[in-house]
Amino acid sequence: MVPTLSERWAAFQAGLDEVYAGPYRRTFARAQQEEDDLFLLVVLAEALGVPDPAAYYTAELMPAAYPQFHAWHLRMGLDRTPLEHIRCC
Amino acid sequence: MNSLVLLVIGLAMFTAGYLIYSKFLGRKIFQLDPAFSTPAHEMTDGVDYVPTNKYVLWGHHFTSVAGAAPIVGPAIAVIWGWLPAFLWVTIGTVFFAGMHDAGALWASVRNRGQSMGMLSGRYIGARGRNLFLVVIFLLLLMVNAAFAVVIKNLLISTPTSVIPVWGAIVVAVIVGQMIYRWRMNLALTTIIGVTALYTLIVIGDSNPIELPESTLGMAPGTAWIVLLFAYAFLASLLPVWVLLQPRDYINGVQLFIGLGILYGATLLEAPKLVVPAFNDNVPDGTPGLVPLLFVTIACGAISGFHGMVSSGTSAKQLDAEPDVRFVGYFGAVGEGLLALGTIIVTTSGFATLADWEKVYTEFGAGGVGAFVQGGGSIVNAGLGIPTSLSATILATMAVLFAATTMDTGVRLQRFVVHEIAEVLGTSISKIAATTVAVLVGLGLTFSQGSSGEGGMRIWPLFGTTNQLLASLTLAIITVMLLRKRRNPWPALIPLALVFVMSFYAALVQLRDLYDAKDWLLLGIDAIIIVAALWVAFEAVIAMQKARTEPAEAEDADLISARSGQ
Question: What kind and span of H or E run contains B473?
Fold first, then answer.
């Protein structure tokens, strides 16, 4: 089937977006990961012994953070889990 | 002779190269297989490995490899006359660069999208990989130093380009905001961005800006270089979406517009070539055509840097193996087009031979300035745009190329500094690593005096290093072909010529640098020579081994790709 003009235009726009974003995908992924790592540090601050006035709120986020915990401590350069109560490895 | 003849023959050669030679390479040599599952499909991660439409990927690939080098090299090389430069650009693109770029892409695709550095470790040995790092470090250093001088010279010779060149930074920042903060449509944003850039060109054309005799005790040339490195320092530290990403994009669009203007004007005006085919009357101190031609024009004929892009990012996004022809080979043709356009404007954009000789007073004196001057008069005659405005358009185009290459160069150099720090068992902050990259670049630029002319003297050394890198890539491709018992000659012949010429050029330069008592560049040149010998030695051993060992099974790549070996 021959694409309509609007389909062609949509494909062109998608291509243009791809040209714009493509070369920088990796940089953005890395920036996103750095941000997530920092967020995890904030969530775990109290458990790591850093006084955190917002601990009451961040504690609620801890279960959500567990799945990423193992990869996080490895990225932070810690071979084993630094927290007794989270046994991931 | 009329430049149109050159244009037609050149275009015919490029077309035949793509339609005939690349088809031969694809079918007989690389044996591109539509059924081969590329790394983009095997290892899709939405970040590096993403199957991409071949036209979009060609756009990425071409804008990544096209910098100021296909303008700078040919614009200097026409000092020997138009014919040597023309032959090297056309034959070089068809038989050397096309093979090299498509080959690098193919080699990487067959090896899980790994970079040339990793592949040199696999096919030539661990020492080959170490050598690769040394060469890349030198290459980036030279790019930063040489391009700072190219830009400085243009800002001084074409003061009307100062407003659009620095204004382009503001346009890029606003475009970045329009896309990320205001979520505007990209097509509309592109039109606004490009219109703004061209408005700045018109404003700049009537408002030339020259720096005062002394800025903080610095001459204009020195001040521009310091300002450029300060800009590169900031640009490489800012988040990419703020400046680099929109700047690269607008610059890519500008590249296509610039090429259109240049070729359109040449077609309409068809100016006569004022320069002889072979120029016997070269200024004193001009080095011999052989071997210097082959290292003066690197990008636009063959460039090792392309192998880094092919295997670094493009290979990870290739949708189907047959796309290697379009993305790799046709990407090289795109650079060849830029180089061909440069040869035409720098040899036919002057009224008389005497006018041309006034510009080409010494080796390296012509360069981008001649491109802007000659191109300006052709665009004026062909499209009716005033000469000064035409020159401003071309100067802006050349500076934008050089500047995006320079700020990416500083950014990459920062990563290299990080890696070196890691090897030394220490860590270094982002700002400290960038400072090191900028200071080393500044040091090299001013190594010949405060005017920064050292940057341009490095140019042939850049060519030599770049060609050495190309030899390394071609050696990897040759070893792969030998292992598969395929015809290695399409890779081996370019490899032999590029290697011999770059090695010969490095030796000639060593003598000249010794005579000039230029110890810094002499040291760099000596490193290059040692590295070249090293490459030759390792590559010959690897080839010998590949020839004598049992042939690689046809599905060896497939198995190794799946198992991650």
Answer: helix B459-483
